[in-house]
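Hi all, posting the design record for the shared folder.

TITLE: backbone redesign
STEP: 1 of 1
STRUCTURE INPUT:
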């Protein structure tokens, strides 16, 4: 076999120059025998410059990496991008300022005007924060309505408290073209000597929590008092796992009664934990600790198991008209497979789903569609969905349009002093009347006086819970009380 020299030379020149990304090389093959050409054929070979493909792959990988660090709605950094950006502060002189900005009332915007309006509002808010952000600062969106602003506190940098005041004022201004939306913001501030993201966010979050307790449009600077609070929080987080596994942290059950007869019609599972050092720990604090330590799923499973045990006891006692309620946050529904856990758990023990209620607590989910899908699945199975703490946060009038909502629990803030407050009476009456129109049961929580009980009954409320009737009690006492009451009726 013989390849003619000219073609061989031409091929060598094309291959070594490598200036073409794609090219075709023609060739001929001649078969000689006895000095004569006995056979021949011609062909083509297509070549691609591999370096071009490599460069394309590198650009694609770089683009994917950038996208993984960016919040696609606002074009700000996301949490992963923020973690990467923090590394850039290592060679920068401190101190550093971390601001955790949480929007007040954003969930009601989504409920009232829809998610498209909510998304547009988030973009506008991001631009307003950018306008106020100091030069060289880093801004990220790390949650549905949470932003983080980090910058080096130099001599020419604005005072953190002045900046927080300006941000709150700017975010509270009207947003032209977005209906009559009004938004507030709460801000937690932490001054750090070293740029450690976990430490900064933890302390800023504690300051934010304090700001929110003061009301809307407030900011708080992490100080010595909050440092002591952090030590307490870390102590609680360290002891949480053993408290769950050793069952020193368990749900107790508060009766829900008919106002007219005080007959028990249900129970709400409420977390109870008496810490050996810090004493009674509130349910919201327990939930925060569980979320921070990654033990929320374990805690939820423990509470649900006890709810199932109570339902099982009620079924055996032929008290099938008594329901058991468990609090679930939208973010729990969003993040895990809690719907599978509930449905599979009830089915495994052959327990009726109609004896189980879910009370949705106050929190704004990042992915409302995912939460809605899971609520729909649970509702379709026969589980009753209730709005807890109605009148605050997640629980808004717009939520009542959801056909899956079968119950509403009026927040205890509207119940205390009900007999003396005309405004609260008018509000509660309006909710009760609206519920009746929509076929939704309206309940009251936090009933502590006989006067409030009588007022609620006159307003049309028929079921309630509170210290007037009973505090939360251990599982066996809750079951015993219903069994004894049921026996008297026979």
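Okay, here is what came back for every position:
SEQUENCE:
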């Amino acid at each position: 076999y013989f390849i003619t020299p000219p073609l061989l030379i031409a091929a060598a020149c094309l291959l070594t120059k490598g200036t073409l990304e794609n090219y075709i090389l023609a060739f001929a093959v001649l078969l000689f025998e006895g000095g004569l050409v006995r056979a021949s054929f011609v062909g083509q070979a297509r070549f691609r410059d591999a370096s071009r493909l490599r460069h394309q792959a590198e650009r694609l990988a770089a683009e994917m990496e950038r996208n993984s660090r960016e919040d696609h709605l606002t074009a700000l950094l996301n949490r992963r991008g923020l973690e990467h950006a923090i590394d850039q502060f290592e060679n920068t002189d401190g101190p550093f300022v971390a601001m955790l900005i949480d929007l007040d009332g954003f969930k009601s915007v989504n409920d009232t005007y829809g998610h498209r309006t909510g998304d547009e509002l988030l973009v506008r808010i991001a631009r307003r924060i950018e306008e106020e952000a100091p030069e060289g600062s880093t801004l990220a969106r790390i949650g549905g309505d949470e932003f983080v602003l980090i910058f080096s506190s130099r001599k020419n940098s604005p005072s953190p408290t002045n900046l927080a005041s300006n941000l709150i004022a700017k975010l509270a201004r009207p947003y032209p073209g977005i209906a009559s939306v009004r938004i507030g913001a709460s801000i937690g501030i932490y001054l750090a000597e070293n740029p450690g993201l976990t430490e900064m966010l933890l302390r800023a979050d504690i300051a934010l929590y304090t700001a929110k307790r003061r009301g809307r449009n407030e900011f708080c600077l992490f100080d010595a008092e909050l440092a002591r609070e952090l030590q307490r929080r870390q102590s609680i987080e360290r002891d949480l796992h053993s408290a769950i596994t050793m069952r020193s942290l368990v749900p107790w059950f508060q009766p829900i009664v008919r106002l007219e007869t005080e007959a028990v019609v249900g129970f709400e599972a409420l977390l109870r934990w008496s810490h050996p050092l810090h004493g009674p720990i509130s349910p919201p604090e327990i939930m925060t600790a569980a979320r921070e330590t990654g033990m929320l799923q374990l805690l939820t499973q423990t509470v649900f198991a006890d709810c199932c045990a109570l339902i099982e006891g009620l079924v055996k006692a032929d008290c099938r008209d008594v329901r058991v309620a468990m609090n679930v946050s939208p973010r729990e529904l969003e993040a895990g497979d809690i719907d599978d856990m509930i449905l599979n758990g009830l089915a495994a023990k052959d327990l009726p789903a109609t004896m189980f209620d879910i009370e949705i607590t106050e929190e704004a989910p990042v992915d409302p569609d995912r939460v809605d899908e899971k609520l729909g699945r649970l509702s379709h199975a026969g589980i009753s969905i209730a709005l807890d703490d109605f009148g605050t946060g997640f629980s808004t009038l717009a939520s009542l349009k959801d056909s899956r909502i079968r119950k509403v629990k009026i927040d205890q803030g509207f119940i205390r002093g009900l007999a003396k407050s005309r405004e609260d009476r008018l509000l509660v009456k309006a909710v009760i009347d609206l519920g009746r129109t929509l076929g939704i049961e309206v309940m009251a929580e936090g009933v502590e006086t006989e006067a409030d009980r009588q007022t609620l009954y006159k307003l049309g409320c028929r079921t309630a819970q509170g210290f007037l009737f009973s505090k939360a009690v251990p599982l066996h006492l809750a079951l015993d009380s219903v069994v004894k009451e049921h026996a008297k009726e026979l």
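COMMENT: The two ends are 107 Å apart (CA to CA).
Let me know if anyone wants the other runs.
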